[in-house]
């Protein structure tokens, strides 16, 4: 029987393992940490009974993909839960904006920008299934749905600073700016609209769901599915060289590009080694998990019902903050993302105590303490928030890298979302998963389609391996 070893048990490593195992390959997953799951781990980080997502918290691109359709993870215990409001953006005077599942209902709340929001996101939402069929795969290929992808590409190719001009009100501009900021790059750069357009459209097409019981439920379901196919996961095993895997017929590396170079050693061709060594990582995040008593007292009432809240002022303040982070400076008022997963999944809370997820965008490798800035930003839009804090759990950029070595210098999306790397990720190649060594493949979020708990990087890489087999 063909034997495969997967290095790393994040959602991409596990997706690769499932795909290979279903095809009859004998699969073993090796994980350096004591707990599997990579970016889909959850723990009681603050108080007993409060479940916190340690990294990935919301999963808009995971609910309808080729991987999710082939592997019914619900059969292994995964249940998706949706908040009433997918994401919100409060403003200083108590106003703000909120994204609902319906394009029309969202647009209706945007006053003069109603028509413009519908014109951008209405047609994209209707065709999003066809669009994702193409952008969840490598971009260097003939698209299956060229016209739908072209419409998406028209908006995705623009700098966010250009697309935002489609809207005139502070509310609509902020609502779009908040999702565009997920790119973790200056909003004036080419293709800085791409991730914002994808996430905003996904909110209407699929919502921004959470996994019941925490994101760890995703990896638990994948592991159960793998075990039913005869595969297994072994924790506490650090792979430092391909020599440790010399009995494997196929090797899948769910690691960052430079880690792949180190593991492969001299077996990797010089040109591939050079390209992967030059792969760029982006800014980092500084994460705090709070235990709070009661709800966050947002002045903007819809934010009290939103799964995700983008916490910063208007679009101009947001653009300034992202520009400063890219220059290596922590802004006085950084972009803060707050996750209220317990609104969709009350099993994560206990009594009046709630788990609250928050991180700020910070420069790569930031060595300072952003706690004061994060709390000040939340307090700014939710007066009285500090009085509700019961406990904190802090992770710096360095601690995030220790938690998951793929998060180099706190880069939780495993690579800068520059225009070049959005298209040619992790290097220009017809097969971006190949590393120049027969039967060895890279399958982490550094490969197409990028970050997220969708598992598509691993699924695509495994399909490449199976085609060769």
TrEMBL record:
- Do you know which Pfam families this protein is assigned to? NAD_binding_8
- What Gene3D superfamilies does the annotation carry? FAD/NAD(P)-binding domain
InterPro entries per UniProt? FAD/NAD-bd_sf (IPR036188)
Organism's domain of life? Bacteria
Could you identify this protein by its name?
NAD(P)/FAD-dependent oxidoreductase
């Amino acid at each position: 029987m063909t034997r495969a070893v997967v290095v790393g048990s994040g959602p991409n490593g596990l997706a690769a393992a499932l795909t290979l195992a279903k095809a009859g390959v004998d699969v073993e997953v090796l994980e350096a940490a004591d707990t599997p799951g990579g970016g889909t781990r959850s723990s009681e980080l603050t108080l007993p009974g409060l479940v916190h997502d340690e990294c990935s918290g919301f999963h808009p691109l995971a609910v309808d993909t080729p991987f999710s359709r082939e592997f019914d993870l619900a059969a292994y215990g995964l249940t998706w839960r949706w908040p009433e409001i997918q994401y919100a953006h409060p403003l200083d005077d108590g106003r703000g904006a909120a994204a609902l599942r319906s394009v029309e209902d969202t647009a209706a709340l945007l006053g003069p920008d109603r028509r413009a929001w519908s014109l951008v996101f209405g047609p994209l939402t209707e065709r999003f299934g066809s669009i994702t069929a193409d952008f969840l795969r490598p971009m260097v290929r003939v698209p299956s749905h060229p016209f739908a992808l072209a419409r998406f590409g028209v908006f995705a190719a623009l700098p966010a600073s250009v697309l935002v001009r489609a809207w005139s009100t502070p509310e609509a501009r902020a609502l779009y700016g908040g999702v565009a900021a997920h790119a973790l790059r200056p909003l004036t750069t080419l293709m800085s609209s791409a991730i914002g357009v994808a996430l905003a459209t996904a909110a209407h097409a699929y919502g921004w769901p959470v996994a019941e019981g925490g994101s760890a439920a995703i990896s638990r379901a994948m592991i159960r599915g793998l075990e039913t196919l005869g595969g297994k996961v072994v924790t506490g095993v650090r792979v430092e060289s391909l020599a440790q895997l010399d009995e494997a017929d196929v090797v899948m590396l769910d690691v960052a590009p430079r880690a792949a170079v180190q593991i492969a050693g001299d077996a990797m061709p010089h040109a591939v080694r050079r390209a992967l060594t030059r792969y760029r990582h982006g800014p980092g995040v500084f994460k705090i998990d709070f235990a709070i008593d009661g709800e966050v007292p947002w002045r903007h009432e819809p934010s009290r019902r939103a799964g995700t809240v983008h916490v910063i002022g208007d679009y101009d303040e947001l653009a300034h903050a992202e520009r400063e982070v890219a220059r290596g400076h922590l802004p006085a008022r950084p972009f803060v993302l707050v996750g209220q997963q317990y609104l969709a999944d009350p099993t994560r809370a206990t009594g009046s105590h709630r788990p609250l997820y928050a991180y700020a965008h910070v420069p790569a490798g930031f060595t300072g303490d952003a706690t004061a800035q994060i709390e000040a930003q939340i307090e700014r839009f939710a007066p009285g928030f500090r009085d509700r804090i019961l406990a904190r759990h802090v992770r710096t950029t360095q601690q995030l890298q220790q938690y998951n070595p793929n998060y180099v210098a706190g880069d939780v999306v495993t690579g800068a979302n520059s225009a070049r790397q959005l298209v040619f990720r992790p290097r220009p190649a017809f097969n971006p998963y190949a590393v120049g060594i027969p039967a060895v493949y890279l399958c982490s979020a550094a490969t197409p389609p990028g970050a997220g708990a969708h598992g598509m990087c691993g699924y695509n890489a495994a399909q490449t391996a199976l085609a060769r087999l």
